[in-house]
Specification:
Blueprint (H helix, E strand, L loop, with lengths): L18 H10 L4 E7 L17 H14 L4 E9 L5 H9 L5 E5 L23 H17 L5 E2 L17 H14 L2 E5 L14 H9 L4 E4 L12 H10 L4 E6 L2 E6 L2
Helix pairs in contact: 1-2, 4-5
Length: 265
């Protein structure tokens, strides 16, 4: 199977199990490579309550290095998942400079300064919003994120479907602009199997988006978005099958933010 490049740790405050336990599970399910990409700090520690704090970044690095020591036969990459919000680019650059990460995942969770559209504690906000506007803002911010050239991978590229609030208008132009930007900047996207565990009941992104990405020769990685060890590598055979149905025959691996391509199994 391809590496699982999207995994979290308890430092994000909504995951359980230590990195070394995730690594042990990865070996159990037959993975030879994984990557931790926990939610990075924000510029303000009180921004929200579901990510590590700024002074915990070194502890995060220490925990992943401990997993590397505990499991020498397993390749373990060290990365971050960083939220993109317009105006936060300088903070993101600072985070990227703090350590020689293997890759950086850029994600959009927020579509305003206060609302994370995938937060179950804020799901009622969807009832006060126009899904057309939410989806439009989401893909606009994804496009902006890609154009910064700060990220190697874009995470869960249609996360806004999580709670099954869908737009009424055609999002093809919005999605196209995002994918055109990813193509122009050579930014990969991921198949994220966590959607199978959510209300939407399908992987991120949709097969339709994945087919459009393949036609643009956009690189592909895989992630479980594991928040406990049992989720590591979850549904990866199905994810590989989906990738192939979209046309993909290869995936991307990262080391030191350098990318290389491998054939799909």
């Amino acid at each position: 199977m391809p590496p699982d490049y999207h995994m979290h740790t308890p430092l994000c405050r909504h995951a359980t199990g230590e990195p070394t336990e995730y690594a042990a599970q990865a070996k159990q399910v037959g993975l030879s490579e994984i990557g931790f990409s926990d939610h990075s700090p924000m510029a303000r520690d009180d921004f929200d309550d579901w990510r590590m704090k700024a002074d915990e970044l070194e502890e995060y690095i220490r925990q992943v290095k401990q997993a590397q020591t505990d499991h020498p036969s397993l390749t373990i990459r060290l990365a971050l998942e960083i939220d993109f919000l317009p105006g936060q680019e300088d903070w993101i650059r600072e985070l990227v400079r703090r350590h020689p990460w293997d890759y950086v995942i850029g994600s959009v969770h927020y579509v305003s300064s206060t609302w994370a559209l995938d937060n179950p504690n804020q799901i009622d906000e969807w009832e006060r919003r126009d899904p057309d506007e939410v989806w439009g803002t989401y893909f606009d911010w994804l496009t902006q994120a890609v154009n910064t050239k700060l990220f190697d991978i874009i995470g869960h590229a249609d996360l806004c479907k999580k709670f099954r609030y869908y737009p009424n208008r055609d999002l093809t132009p919005d999605i196209g602009r995002f994918l055109d930007a990813a193509q122009a900047t050579d930014t990969a996207i991921e198949i994220n199997t966590a959607g199978l565990r959510k209300d939407c009941g399908e992987m991120y992104p949709s097969l339709l988006i994945l087919k459009k990405a393949f036609r643009r020769e956009i690189g592909l990685t895989f992630g479980s978005d594991a928040h406990n060890a049992s989720e590591v590598g979850m549904a990866f055979p199905e994810a590989v099958k989906m990738a192939k149905s979209a046309g993909y025959r290869s995936y991307c691996r990262f080391e030191g933010r350098s990318r290389k391509t491998e054939p799909l199994p």
